[in-house]
Design brief:
Layout lengths: L1 E2 L10 H4 L2 H8 L3 E10 L3 E8 L4 E6 L5 H15 L7 E3 L2 E5 L4 E5 L4 E2 L7 H19 L11 H18 L4 H15 L12 E3 L8 E4 L2 E4 L6 E3 L1 H20 L6 H15 L4 H18 L10 H16 L1
Parallel strand pairs: 1-2, 5-11
Antiparallel strand pairs: 2-3, 3-4, 4-7, 6-7, 8-10, 9-12, 10-11
Length: 320
């Protein structure tokens, strides 16, 4: 069975990747089902393969060598993220890399995506604590990377995103511009990374969708943006996504406040008190970026005004 039959001239390997017979040969096992899970034309595609040896996930990224993420996962597995990890924090096992397809394949992590567990208070706090522990393990794994991302890079991304949002929502443009000015000032409070121990390896796209929970096991996925950066970034990013989820799903930015606090305090307990303000700064910058995302992502347009108002309140409180 094949769902999502696609063509995409920007992803040269997609035709082969969606062909069960071709992939059976390449993977050395019978592929019975191919399913497209996500597709961004000319950019990337995520494919699920059902096989007799268990489900696999294939990821195609235009312009990227497949061997690089494959080797990165191998390095993480060697650094204590394999299936025998005593703390239960793992990454998915890499299976194959096909540079000619710009695609690599990993085992499908068993369990439930953590974003499905955010709407009950007791499971949301469990997810938040697990996330903080997983992020800390990534930060202290010492897995090398040549890429880096610092507070100035974060601001450049935010400036571009909010500039586009102001153009799309002219009635809110003045407030969006004012928020950006406040975010620039607020970012200075996280510009002490060297004093806090310097950059470490961070996930950089760390939120509930990137965690799969299975009993006591937590599998972290999608290391596409892995780089050297401020460890506060991952924790702040996760907290901001909790706020955005609360506002979008529950129409209340405080609906997951308990989970946010658990995430923050668990992170501080592991990383150190010196990171508290930087975590809060990155949470505020990420939430401001969600204002921009809400103007482009389908189904989120109703949150723009409320997100903007909440960001204004958060940054104003920090300014005092």
């Amino acid at each position: 069975m094949l769902t999502g039959r696609l063509t995409d001239s920007g992803l040269a390997g997609l035709v082969v990747a969606l062909d069960p017979a071709s992939m059976s040969i390449r993977l050395g096992r019978q592929v019975t089902t191919v399913e497209v899970l996500r597709h961004k034309p000319a950019r990337r595609c995520v494919v699920r393969y059902d096989t007799a040896d268990g489900p696999l996930i294939g990821k195609l990224r235009a312009g990227h060598r497949a061997a690089s993420p494959y080797r990165l996962m191998e390095r993480f597995r060697s650094a204590g993220f394999d299936d025998s990890a005593a703390d239960g924090i793992t990454v998915a096992a890499p299976v194959a890399a096909f540079d000619d397809l710009e695609m690599w394949v990993q085992r499908c992590a068993p369990g439930v995506p953590a974003d499905r567990l955010l709407d009950l208070a007791h499971t949301a706090t469990l997810v938040a604590a697990a996330a903080a522990r997983a992020a800390f393990k990534i930060h202290t794994a010492d897995v090398a990377t040549r890429r880096h991302h610092y507070i100035d890079d974060e601001l450049r991304i935010l400036e571009a995103a909010l500039g586009q949002a102001a153009a799309r929502r002219p009635a809110l443009a003045e407030r969006i511009d004012a928020l950006l000015r406040r975010c620039r000032r607020r970012a200075a409070d996280a510009d002490d990374l060297l004093d806090r121990g310097g950059p470490r390896g961070v996930h950089r796209d760390f939120y509930a969708d990137q965690l799969v929970l299975h009993g006591d096991r937590v599998t972290v996925i999608d290391f596409d943006l892995y780089c050297a950066a401020d460890p506060a970034l991952d924790h702040g990013n996760f907290i901001a996504h909790l706020t955005e989820h609360a506002l979008r799903v529950h129409r209340d930015p405080l609906a997951l406040a308990a989970a946010e606090q658990v995430c923050l305090e668990t992170a501080i307990g592991l990383e150190g008190e010196q990171h508290r303000e930087a975590i809060e700064v990155y949470a505020e910058l990420t939430l401001a970026r969600h204002v921009a995302l809400s103007t482009t992502v389908a189904g989120r347009g109703h949150t723009t005004s409320d997100l903007l108002a909440w960001c204004e309140q958060r940054v104003a409180t920090a300014d005092r």
